[in-house]
Amino acid sequence: xxxxxxxxxxxxxxxxxxxxxxxxxxxxxxxxxxxxxxxxxxxxxxxxxxxxxxxxxxxxxxxxxxxxxxxxxxxxxxxxxxxxxxxxxxxxxxxxxxxxxxxxxxxxxxxxxxxxxxxxxxxxxxxxxxxxxxxxxxxxxxxxxxxxxx
Amino acid sequence: xxxxxxxxxxxxxxxxxxxxxxxxxxxxxxxxxxxxxxxxxxxxxxxxxxxxxxxxxxxxxxxxxxxxxxxxxxxxxxxxxxxxxxxxxxxxxxxxxxxxxxxxxxxxxxxxxxxxxxxxxxxxxxxxxxxxxxxxxxxxxxxxxxxxxxxxxxxxxxxxxxxxxxxxxxxxxxxxxxxx
Lengths: 150, 180
What we know:
The structure holds two protein chains of two kinds. Chain A is an all-alpha fold. Chain A has helices at about 1-15, 30-40, 60-70, 75-90, 105-130, 140-150. Chain A folds into two domains: about 15-90, Cytochrome C biogenesis protein (Helicase, Ruva Protein, domain 3, Orthogonal Bundle), CATH 1.10.8; about 100-150. Chain A contains six helices and no strands. Chain B is built from six helices and seven strands; from the N terminus they run ααβββαβαβαββα. Chain B is about 40% helix and about 20% strand. Chain B starts with a helix and ends with a helix.
């Protein structure tokens, strides 16, 4: 039991390995840092939910190289994202854009929460309103006084 | 009365979900599909060295000849490519299809040996050893196949191997009418 716990805790220390290889990295640390930030936000197109920085797939490596080439050529971050979206669509963005087609995706969960919260609040309010407590009778008041010892 | 209706809510939810799952199964919905943004757009840049010795390099002009063209990315190391290969051979021989083959991340000599062994259905064959052209085409791997109309517009993009059904329902009508 204790050993299992230790193993579990140790496994929590493990960091996810990056697939970015040293040979791929740019010499300029500032550009490389931007490339990493972009790479973390781009989705590998053959893996279900991995960024291109985390994926060892062939296509992910090509995409990392393209990101670095675009940055070296002087592209802004937005231009690099546009470059990828032009080839692979919104699918490559790990954070989907907010637009008409993704309205349900962005607002669906908050909407359900809102509806549920309203329903619960209305029910609670109605319950309080429908049960006004009758005042104590003289008998009850007498008993209460004796219970409280006055 | 309204409280009794409330008991039906879980059942209604179950029915809704079962309906969605049934539809997913029957309609052939593929949740892993990433779609393609290439369809409806002009074909991306094509500027490749020829795979076969003595051939001219591949250029954009190949895709704007007025004739519908099939572009197939393949590799000798790819098993699904092996599976779809006879279909391309038949499309070229029986149906006279213009097929452009591009060897993706494949050593040219290995791609050539593969074609020599299995037969070469490609009117034009190019090499994309570093995958740059594949990226421009929005390729996710091999095999993938694009149908380009006579004006150079991408009309179809198959991710994965083409099947007999694709040939019958999509590719042949496309080759005949220019539009599937």
